[in-house]
Amino acid sequence: MFPPLPEKLSVFKKLLVANRGEIALRVMRACREIGISSVAVYSDVDRNALHVRYAEEAYLLGPAPPRESYLNIEKIIEVARRSRVDAIHPGYGFLAENADFAEACQKAGIVWVGPPPDAIRRMGNKVAARRMVSEAGVPVVPGTDAMYDLSQAEAAAVEIGFPVIIKALAGGGGKGIRLANDAAEMQAALSVAGGEALSAFGDNAVFIEKYMEPVRHIEVQILADDHGNVVALGERECSIQRRYQKLIEESPSTVVDPDLRERLCQAAVAAARAAGYRSAGTVEFLMDRERRFYFLEMNTRLQVEHPVTELVSGADLVVEQIRIAAGERVSLRQEDVRLSGWALECRVTAEDPFDNFLPSLGCIDYLAEPSGPGVRVDSALFSGAELSYHYDPMVAKVITWGRDRSEAIQRMQRALSEFVIVGIETNIPFHLQMLADARFLAGDISTSFLEKEFSMAPPSDGTSEQVALLATALLTHLKRRSAPLTEAPAANGSAWRRAGRAAAFEGRGTGWRRSIS
């Protein structure tokens, strides 16, 4: 049924994806293309999730809270042993940058599809990472070592010069970050950043960097293998952010010319080599108006925005990760990397942009995803899906490709206008307004653009309401004609083993399995 595996990948017959949602599906699809069976894990609220339906096997981890399910290292390793997998892919988020999890996989004799634990630790310690890449010749933002003491932090901030940014030492994903414009704001900012860091990462240590504004967020995708090859696949622009969370990404950047791209890629490769890195990773930089760039951090995992790099480079980053984990070489040489066209990604979240982006939970009553030339949707949504407050509000990613930036944007506008999600509010109206903004269209953006220079206009007419009414009518019609959503579909010409699957979903069994004919 599948194309034969490369010889050295024959050791990977089965892979467990320690994640959920669209990234779990993304990894499983890559596995299916290269002939590897996939194993899903799920929490009790994810029993009917698409990644559970898609995998060849699925196992219940526990209750919905992540610490009892997707962050439960012992339980995941237990499932991996029971299902006899060869490898584990962590996706992004959850345990993707957890060195202890990587070591637990290795101790269990399971291949970790990711960087070495030591590299995760080196780059996870933001202060140590700054020091290490600086010694490798990569420019860094002026800043401090780790600190816990308020008076020490205040003195350091005065020396650096306000405003400063306070960051959690073990932070990531926009957590544990606070701005202090002067000494009066230091105490509160330090307390909040440290407390948030302690809650999210178990460590309240922080460090301080000079706050630079306006700046752009530019990152470089790299691939590194065990044979000494480190390849950079160009840059991504990630400056449209809200509270340090990226919302729109694109590749290439409007401000990066070939000479600057080469220097950025050389710096990213130097940082990766300094860390002893292997697998896919991203080196992030801040860039000022004079196009001077400074190392920000390295994400030791697959990024949410990896599809834009895939569309312009032609690389399959997940397959490359699996190849590297199997001991293969990166399939691309640096001289072979050519960026073609322009790609744009919009993160669709269950948030109401007309009400200060408040979360919107509930059931997806009806769903119609866009398609057509140059459009890719990475999503785990389906009609009848229930959104849980336990997990990230991102529900889908819409990615478009065009021959140039203008065409990619036009396709994105068309795709988003076709995307119908009934039952919850989403930030699609925000994206449509941003994509029509004159400054965004001109590429005149920064990390502070959204929050300081952009504001949502109120809904202009009843178009969205009309679409919702139409979708609701369609849903009613479809419900009358279709079987229940929970009924198992046919696969490869035969039904799933419904009894075992139902038992697992009800918590009576250890897992369900279907075979590939």
Task: Characterise this structure.
It is a single chain. The chain has about 525 residues and is of the alpha+beta class. Among the domains are: about 5-115, 3-Layer(aba) Sandwich (Rossmann fold), CATH 3.40.50.20; about 115-140 and about 215-340, D-amino Acid Aminotransferase, Chain A, domain 1, CATH 3.30.470; about 145-210, ATP-grasp fold, A domain (Dna Ligase, domain 1), CATH 3.30.1490. Helix content is about 35%, strand content about 25%. The chain has 17 helices and 23 strands. The strands form six sheets. An eight-stranded antiparallel beta sheet has the order 13-12-9-10-11-14-19-18, sandwiched between helices. Strands 5-4-1-2-3-23 form a six-stranded mixed beta sheet. A hairpin with a 2-residue loop joins strand 10 (about 230-240) and strand 11 (about 245-250). Mean pLDDT is about 90; it is low at about 1-10 and about 485-515.
